[in-house]
Design a protein that fits this description.
Number of helices of chain A: 0
Helix content of chain A: under 10%
Structural class of chain B: mainly beta
Helix content of chain B: under 10%
Order of helices and strands of chain A: EEEEEEEEEEE
Strand content of chain A: over 45%
Largest interface: A-B, 26 and 27 residues
Oligomer: heterodimer
Radius of gyration of chain B: 13 Å
Shape of chain A: globular
Distance between the termini of chain B: 36 Å
Distance between the termini of chain A: 36 Å
Number of helices of chain B: 0
Order of helices and strands of chain B: EEEEEEEEEEE
Shape of chain B: globular
Strand content of chain B: over 45%
Largest sheet of chain A: 6 strands, mixed
Largest sheet of chain B: 7 strands, mixed
Structural class of chain A: mainly beta
Chain lengths: ~110, ~110
């Protein structure tokens, strides 16, 4: 069983829809990362969270430490948001574990 | 600034051959790490380093060696390649070991025949 579970695995949305991707983890962490992997393969960091909520443009990330759960929200989705979104957790010993990713397709 | 540079981008090896994947960063980040990405498996941490002279094992270290002689470079060595090591490899770095943003290289696609 993966230590980091993401849902859904695949998500198709119409342009303009509000999107939520969920991430659950099993043990205490020092930080949680949301990453975006474009169809060309490059990976970029979207957020790093240790508590609360962060917002960047149309993207919002939240984390609930007690429930060991994080969500990534995309408001007013656009076809250029189509990518794989990856949740990753970091531990105090600097080890990291990753979710399998959520493949998002936004149709015009 | 180039950020994180990985070479080569593509490599084909025969079983038993050795090779080194290079990773260099110009951001003066202390933490560097190597991952492999396989279909359906997601990213998995191979080895990481929190500074020059310090390395540690991640989730899937077997078959790989690393060293960190400088802050800038973190090479990944395959001493005897196996078909199971066919994968896409990513190098990443961050400024603060536990809480910094991750910066990834473009990836290296390795095929072992």
């Amino acid at each position: 069983k993966n230590e980091v579970e993401q849902s859904p695995q695949n998500l198709t949305a119409q342009e303009g829809e509000f999107i939520t991707i969920n991430c659950s983890y099993s043990v205490g962490i020092s930080a949680l990362h949301w990453l975006q992997q474009h169809p060309g393969g490059g990976i970029v960091s979207l957020f790093m969270l240790s508590s609360g909520k962060k917002k960047h443009g149309r993207l919002i990330a939240t984390i609930n430490i007690q429930e060991k759960h994080s969500s990534l929200h995309i408001t007013a989705s656009h076809p250029r948001d189509s990518a794989v979104y990856i949740c990753a957790v970091g531990y105090n010993n600097n080890d990291m574990r990753f979710g399998a990713g959520t493949r998002l397709t936004v149709k015009p | 600034n180039a950020g994180v540079t990985q070479t080569p981008k593509f490599q084909v090896l025969k079983t038993g051959q050795s090779m080194t994947l290079q990773c260099a960063q110009d951001m003066n980040h202390e933490y560097m790490s190597w991952y492999r990405q396989d279909p359906g498996m997601g990213l998995r941490l191979i080895h990481y380093s929190v500074g020059a002279g310090i390395t540690d094992q991640g989730e899937v270290p077997n078959g790989y060696n690393v060293s960190r002689s400088t802050t800038e470079d973190f090479p990944l060595r395959l001493l005897s390649a196996a078909p199971s090591q066919t994968s896409v490899y990513f190098c990443a770095c961050r400024l603060i070991p536990n809480t910094g943003e991750l910066f990834f290289g473009e990836g290296s696609r390795l095929t072992v025949l």
